[in-house]
């Protein structure tokens, strides 16, 4: 057993975590991921010695050691705290999920972009979009900004919400801590640069593995709340061409569900990158940013309702078996 908290109590903790995120958003000060990032930078500086890019095997080994150092202890602590008695375990589980979620933060970042585009304020929309994407936005058109924002919204729906909910449902606080920290390490080290090409590869691979099932469940959820047939067709025919094995299904299904055209050329650091087309239909606009967020919000509550029903079913099944075991 990863935890001695009953399924219905774990679901209650999930509900509390989601409500805390909706109420408080990300902690403004003393966010645990900020402290984790500082430590990760120190570990990387220690293990990723200058010139390591010339020794790919050694770099990958050091990257694997760095990944293990940064994850094993936090996950063990998270596991130990799940055995707190009574409400202590539930509160800890809820706080762990709350710290990993980013639903309110995502909404607070993307909705002002939609508002700026509706107001025709391109300068403000460009500045706001630059905060959430790495592509160049200095001379981006309204359609380019809407496309970048919808893409980021759909992809972060998986990374900041559904992946966390999935691993919380599977393994409680240890699962969500593992997922969020692995995702953070991938964001910090998963670059194809001289420094991180090999060193960051273990973090990127682990993140891909942890995201494989959640990404496909996210894609299916996007399909349910939009044009199902079009979402599935785009997912089936377009996702494989995308560079990320998990972002491809999420964004293709989301684009098809919304009936918009995503992907295509984008400029990064002054260089144009040819990207496959995703979705079908019209070019995205401000209204599609709002629609993408609505898609995520509805799917998130569907996940909570379904998981709650499953938890109650598991509890009733356990009560029906002598000794409370199934």
Automatic annotation (TrEMBL):
Q: Which UniProt keywords apply?
A: Cell membrane, Cobalamin biosynthesis, Membrane, Transmembrane, Transmembrane helix
User: What GO CC annotations are associated with the protein?
Assistant: plasma membrane
Q: Name one GO biological process term.
A: cobalamin biosynthetic process
GO MF term set = ABC-type vitamin B12 transporter activity; threonine-phosphate decarboxylase activity
Chief subcellular location: membrane
Q: What InterPro entries does its record include?
A: Cobalamin_biosynth_CobD/CbiB
Question: How does this protein lie in the membrane?
Answer: Multi-pass membrane protein
Keyword Transmembrane tagged: yes
**Which segments of the protein form a coiled coil according to its record?**
none
What is this protein's function?
A: Converts cobyric acid to cobinamide by the addition of aminopropanol on the F carboxylic group.
Which protein is depicted?
Cobalamin biosynthesis protein CobD
- Name the source organism: Pandoraea terrigena
């Amino acid at each position: 057993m990863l935890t001695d908290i009953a399924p219905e109590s774990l679901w209650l903790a999930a509900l509390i975590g989601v409500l805390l995120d909706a109420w408080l958003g990300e902690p403004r000060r003393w966010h645990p991921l900020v402290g984790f990032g500082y430590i990760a930078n120190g570990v990387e500086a220690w293990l990723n010695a200058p010139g390591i890019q010339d020794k790919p095997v050694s770099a990958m080994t050091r990257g694997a050691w760095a990944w293990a150092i940064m994850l094993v202890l936090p996950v063990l602590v998270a596991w130990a705290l799940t055995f707190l008695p009574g409400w202590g375990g539930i509160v800890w589980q809820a706080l762990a999920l709350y710290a990993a979620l980013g639903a309110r933060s995502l909404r607070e970042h993307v909705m002002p972009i939609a508002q700026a585009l509706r107001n025709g304020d391109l300068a403000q929309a460009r500045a706001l979009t630059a905060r959430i994407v790495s592509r160049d936005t200095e001379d981006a058109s309204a359609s380019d900004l809407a496309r970048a924002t919808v893409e980021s919204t759909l992809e972060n729906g998986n990374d900041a919400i559904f992946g966390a909910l999935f691993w919380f449902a599977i393994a409680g606080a240890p699962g969500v801590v593992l997922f969020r920290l692995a995702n953070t390490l991938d964001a910090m080290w998963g670059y194809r640069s001289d420094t991180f090409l090999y060193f960051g590869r273990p973090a990127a691979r682990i993140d891909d593995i942890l995201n494989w099932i959640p990404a496909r469940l996210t894609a299916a959820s996007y399909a349910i709340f939009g044009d199902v047939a079009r979402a599935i067709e785009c997912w089936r025919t377009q996702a494989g061409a995308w560079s990320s094995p998990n972002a491809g299904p999420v964004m293709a299904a989301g684009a098809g569900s919304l009936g918009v055209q995503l992907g295509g050329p984008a400029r990064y650091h002054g260089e144009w990158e040819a990207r496959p087309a995703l979705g079908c239909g019209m070019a995205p606009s401000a209204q599609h940013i709002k629609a993408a967020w609505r898609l995520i919000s509805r799917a998130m509550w569907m996940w909570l309702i379904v998981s709650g029903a499953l938890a109650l079913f598991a509890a009733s099944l356990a009560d029906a078996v002598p000794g409370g075991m199934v």
